[in-house]
Design a protein that fits this description.
By secondary structure, this protein is mainly α. It is built from nine helices and no strands. The longest helix is centred in the last third of the chain and has 39 residues. The radius of gyration is 23 Å and the shape is elongated. The protein starts with a helix and ends in an 8-residue tail after the last helix.
Length: 231
């Protein structure tokens, strides 16, 4: 869908566009095909994991990889729109800023998980306070932005091209940070739990009070009948 939109923008007359766009598209059919083949390859690899308790994680992982693919397409389109206005170094600086922020969030999440699992996190109170401030004020700014956008559309207020470009740039950065925050704070702990379930299946089965058939599934047990001895 993003590919079709990108191609339609590049095929349009520049005079009909509100914002200029880079002449040489970064999001091409070849890039889309490569991403699609990688995604299909990951799905095929995922079929190795057949235990019933891991299947929900496997299906969800395919959704997350698709979201990552979609984010890549969106970023390539955003770069196409930004290049006529911003320099390559400016765009690189934006990605460096997002990477540093992602590293900061990931470090905080690691410390939080260590404290939760082992009771010995070494994270500083100052960093936690900063993270909380970012979360609170970040969501506040996002909410204010949604309200302002609703008011603008309701009253059909028009802004200059430069302000529209600035708004798109801020939206691009916020969406990237939102996706990264979701992967770090929601998805990463979930798949960490999946890893431990895969590593210690019997311990988790007994802890959750599941039977061998409920935990591993009938199809898997047909090929691994030795697991029935654990019942």
């Amino acid at each position: 869908m993003i590919l079709v939109f990108s191609l339609s923008l590049h095929d349009s007359d520049p005079k009909d566009l509100r914002l200029p766009i880079y002449q040489h598209p970064l999001l091409t059919a070849e890039v889309y095909l490569v991403c699609f083949l990688i995604w299909v390859f990951i799905i095929l690899i995922g079929k190795v994991f057949r235990k019933a308790f891991i299947l929900p994680y496997r299906y969800h992982f395919h959704v997350i990889t698709f979201l990552s693919w979609l984010s890549l397409e969106f970023n390539l389109l955003a770069i196409d729109i930004s290049l006529p206005t911003l320099s390559v170094w400016m765009i690189a600086a934006i990605f460096v800023f997002i990477f540093i922020l992602a590293y900061f969030m990931f470090s905080l999440e690691i410390e939080s998980l260590k404290k939760l699992m082992y009771g010995n996190g070494s994270g500083s109170c100052l960093r936690n306070k900063i993270a909380n401030k970012i979360a609170i004020y970040g969501m506040s700014f996002l909410g204010i932005g949604v309200i302002i956008n609703f008011i603008i559309k309701s009253f059909s207020i028009k802004f200059s091209t430069s302000l529209e470009g600035l708004g798109l740039l801020i939206t691009w950065i916020i969406l990237n940070i939102a996706v990264i925050a979701m992967l770090i704070y929601i998805e990463f702990p979930s798949y960490l739990q999946a890893f431990y379930k895969w590593k210690y299946p019997e311990e988790y089965r007994q802890w959750e009070g599941k039977t061998v058939e409920e935990w591993y599934g009938k199809k898997y047990l047909k090929k691994h009948k030795e697991l029935l001895e654990n019942e």
